Amino acid sequence: EYLGTYKTAGESGCSMTMIITAQGDTYHYKIKTSARLREGRLEVSKMGDEIYFRFNGLLGAKPKTVIEGQYIDKQIVVQNDGNAMNKFLNFKECDVKYIEFSKIKTK
Asked: Which one of 11, 19, 64, 102 has the minimum C-beta count within 10 Å?
């Protein structure tokens, strides 16, 4: 269900591509932004009806913590920055609050 290629709409100069693959029972990601190319193991966890992703090896800009996201309606949504009470920044190359990766239909 999660496997495939995802892209951002390119809003605010934020053009990113993510590929989700699997080897056996293990998921992997590969992400390309204007500033970096990373790949690693993707942890998928479910809490009730909600699905969460943890991108092992992909660290945020401030602080350097593992980036997480949520799988919603065939999209991967990553909160890019926090607020006054919880300051963080995941992708400094993107000036948006939420980054939405939409699945690309393949032929």
From this structure: 64
